[in-house]
Structures are given as C-alpha cells and as structure tokens.
Amino acid sequence: MTSLSTLDPERSARPPLRAHQSGLMGRAAAAASTPGGAIFLLVGVLLVATIVANPNFGDPGVLIRFLGRTAPIAIAAIGQYFVIVAGEFDLSMAAVVSMQVVLAGNLIGDDPGRVIPVMCLMLVLGALIGVLNGLGTTVLLVPSFIVTLGMMLALNGIVDYVTGGAAAGNPVDEFREIGRGTIEDVPVVDVIPYPLIILTVIAVAAVWLMRRPFGRSLIAAGDNPAAARVAGGSLVWLKMRAFVLSSLSATVAGILLVGYAGVHPSVGQGYEFAAITAVVLGGVLLGGGRGWVLSAAAGAFALELLFTLLTALGIESTWRDTVQGVIIIVAVALAGRAWQAGRRPSRSARRAEASTDSSTGSSIQPPSPGTTTGDS
Questions:
Q1: Closest by CA position to 288, among listed 344, 242, 325
Q2: Nearest to residue 298, comparing CAs of 11, 96, 37, 108?
Q3: Which single residue of 63, 111, 222, 319 could bond 289 by disulfide (Cβ 3.0 to 4.6 Å)?
C-alpha cells in the first residue's frame, strides 16, 4: 500500500508531530495559544472589563438577556463560518435577513395559523437562495464575492419595491415570541431566552457537522481545493451546502430579530459585515481551511461585548463601523500569521532533525523525477 509520504515527498522531510504529553491542562493551554482558542480568553477579558465599567452588567439576569440578544448574530456567524472556512464569502446575509423579516410581516399578519406554514416557506426560500449562490460560485465560476453581492442587491431591490422603504406588517405575537420569549422562574438567572436555546441547539449541530466527513471535506476544500478535487470530493455539492447553511442561518436570525426589532427593511442592515467580523475575530482564516465553528460564535459575543464596553465608557455608537473595520484588518493579519506559525516546525524540532541527519551522515534530498520516497 502506498503511504502518504510516497504521494507527497515533502511530507517525509517534516518532523513528526509531537504527542500530547502535558495532560488536559497542557492541551487547554495549547488550544488557547491558537487564534481559535484565544477568542475565549478575549471574551473573558471583555466581560470583566464591561462589568468593571458597568457593575449592573454583572447581574445574572442582565447577562443572560445580553446573551439572548446576541444569539441572532452568533447564529449568523456560525452560518458565515461554513462559507468562509470553505474559502468563500456570503455578502447576501443581511439582505436575506431583511427579506425574511418583511416576508413574515406581510404573510403572517394576525393569523396564528399561518405561523408554521410561513416559517416553512421562509426556510425553503433561504435554502433556495443558498443554492443559487452556490451554483453561481461553483458552476458559473463567478467569485462568491460578486455572486453574493449581486444577490444582496437583487433582494434589497425586491424588499424596497414591496415595502417602499417603510415598515410593513406586524406578525402575530405567537410568532414574535420566538425571538423575545423566555422560560420564566429559572433559578439564579431568572429567565432563559428562547434565542439562546435555539443558538445552543444550532451550535451543537454545527460542531457535530464539522466532525463529520462533510466538515472535514469543507476544511480541506478551503485549505487546498485542488487536492480536495483530486481526492474525489464534489466541490459543487460541498460548497453549495455551505451556502445553503449560511442562508438558513440568516433566515433563523431573521425569525428571531422580528421578536424585538419589529418588521422593517433595515432590520438586517450590516449583518453580513458583523458576521464576517465575528468569524475573523474568532480566528477563522479568511482564505479558508483553518478555524473552529464555536470560535466564530464566540467572536460574535466578543464583538457585542466590545460594543457594550464602548457604550459603558461613553463612546458614541457611531464608531461601531470604524471599530469593525479595524478588527477585520487586525484579526485577519494576526490569524494568518498565527496559523502559519503553527504549521512551521519548532526550533527544537529543527535542531533534532539536523542532529539526526548529521549523525546518520545523510541529508534529505528532493526526489528526482519518476521516483518516489517512503514505504510502498
């Protein structure tokens, strides 16, 4: 049987990966040193800083409601993660949110019996938009930036035509309760918001999905599309599913936003950039192939904690876009360097390799054409 070193001569020149010998704490420290793990430390630091600036924020009831309000953007970040880790973009997310909000407001109205059918229609339309984005990117070979930008403009045009730029409709309270409802009389925290429960379910499902062959193939496609194609995977079907998941997450976020933001075409404004900012803040490599899905969700909480801290410090909310822009630039630069550094052999490994070569009197030479290296 041909080994991996035979297929990739450079692999035989790499030092072996070090085994985990430090136990649970050592693994935790190693994870925290990666971009995906560092975001959880940042969330802790921002939480402490926000509580210091505004002691009322430390109240369990206030904190749990903050988590509920942040759940929609965290769900959107999870959806955006699937696309970015595959090496693509989805700029249509905010337009999908706006479309779904307006759709709910116009179709549900005061009839509780329409809630379930309209929600099913919203999910079908969300999936259809994802399919169109995926086909445009993989079959027509148009860059995802252009495809989703065009989809965003098209959906915004439809929303403006239907609403005239003003609020339209007011869905029944049974529908709005999905986004603003809570489980009452919970010890310590008093309530548990429905959006937080929905986020938890989606996060667990996302982690499970990324541990399946689909998740591994998605990361491989983002890291090296050519190798993923040679390995036999269908990039068309793979990336199409990523776009579908992104659009479905935007649909769920739109359903939740109706609960406390109402029905207005501007409800989803800026959500695509907020989701991208959260993903890159979570250490996900913007070019694809590196990153953890829970880190993307944690990036959303870190972003909202930062905005809350700035508000507590008396800084005007008009600086939000500037802060997001700076975060994207800095996070992308740091994450790229950190992931590249993690792939390089350590100095001690290079010294050990050099000493081994010198003691055996041999050096690794690149294979000549027509030859292979390694066991067969």
A1: 242
A2: 37
A3: 222
Distance CA 256, CA 262 (A): 10
Reading the block at residue 276, the tokens are 């991208």
Banded pLDDT at 13 (limits 50, 70, 90): very low
Residue 362 three-state SS: coil
* 361 vs 174: CA distance, rounded Å: 77
Residue by residue, what is the 3-state secondary structure of 1-21? CCCHHHHCHHHHCCCCCCCCC
Sort 39 into a burial class: Cβ within 10 Å, 0-12 / 13-18 / 19+. buried
Please report the pLDDT score of residue 30 as a whole number: 64
pLDDT, position 178: 93
Segment among 95-99, 173-177, 224-228, 347-351 with least mean pLDDT: 347-351
Strand residue runs (E) in the chain? 182-186, 190-193
Please name the amino acid found at residue 166: A
What digits encode the pLDDT tens for the residues 171-187? 888 999 999 999 999 99
Q: Which two tokens stand for residue 171?
A: 């869905």
Q: What is the DSSP string of 179-204?
A: HH-EEEEETTTEEEEHHHHHHHHHHH
Q: Cα separation of 232 and 209, whole Å? A: 20
Burial of 120 (0-12, 13-18, 19+ CB in 10 A): exposed
Q: How far is CA 220 from the centre of its chain?
A: 16
Overall fold of domain 35-335: ABC transporter involved in vitamin B12 uptake, BtuC (1.10.3470)
Per cent of the chain over pLDDT 90 is 51
